[in-house]
Specification:
Layout: E1 2-5, E2 13-16, E3 26-30, E4 42-49, E5 63-70, E6 73-75, E7 91-98, E8 104-109, H1 114-117, E9 118-121, E10 126-130, E11 137-146, E12 157-164, E13 167-168
Antiparallel strand pairs: 1-2, 3-4, 4-11, 5-10, 5-12, 6-11, 7-8, 7-11, 9-10, 12-13
């Protein structure tokens, strides 16, 4: 995250999220153009996955996204456990298509099996998103909160990679 001064009327601290990814088939953003740590207290992330090749193998090839949270970002989990909390808008996934302009269109929300799609690796502190159908495009959203000890000026980083048969893509 970077801190920038806005000198129009007064100085205001703003944050911009940094996310590393390969945008040929995977891209990421967050709701809103700035993050205000003391205004919202959370970030809603959006991942977009577009198959970079046709697998046509009945999902024999296992694909997953691994999202490494760094800094003072925490996932929403059931209190006192490593289990993800699937209530509200905490974790969502839609299958759909991308139009010629790159917009995600014709979304159909997937509501079953979320506990198999979204998995938290407590040891590595990674959110794992198992891709249900390799030949389908998806929009994935989830919310991270700021840890209780987060403060203005902290660096927050969130890296995502596509894993195909245990190889980064």
């Amino acid at each position: 995250m970077w801190i920038q001064g806005d000198e129009r009327d007064h100085i205001q601290i703003k944050k911009t999220a940094k996310a590393d990814y390969d945008d040929r088939f995977l891209w990421k953003n967050h709701d809103g153009d700035k993050i205000f740590i003391d205004k919202n207290g959370y970030i809603k992330w959006n991942l977009f996955y577009k198959p970079y090749k046709v697998y046509n193998d009945n999902n024999e090839t296992k694909l997953r996204l691994e999202d490494q949270l760094k800094g003072n970002l925490v996932l929403r989990k059931e209190k006192g456990t490593a289990n993800l909390a699937f209530n509200d808008d905490n974790y969502k996934i839609w299958k759909g298509n991308f139009d010629a302009e790159g917009n995600f269109v014709n979304p159909v929300e997937i509501t079953e099996g979320l506990d198999k799609i979204f998995v938290y690796d407590l040891e590595q502190k990674k959110l794992i998103v198992n891709i249900p159908d390799n030949d389908t495009s998806y929009k994935i959203s989830y919310i991270t909160d700021f840890a209780p000890d987060a403060k203005k000026g902290d660096e927050l980083e969130n890296d995502v990679v596509l894993i195909e048969k245990n190889q980064h893509r």
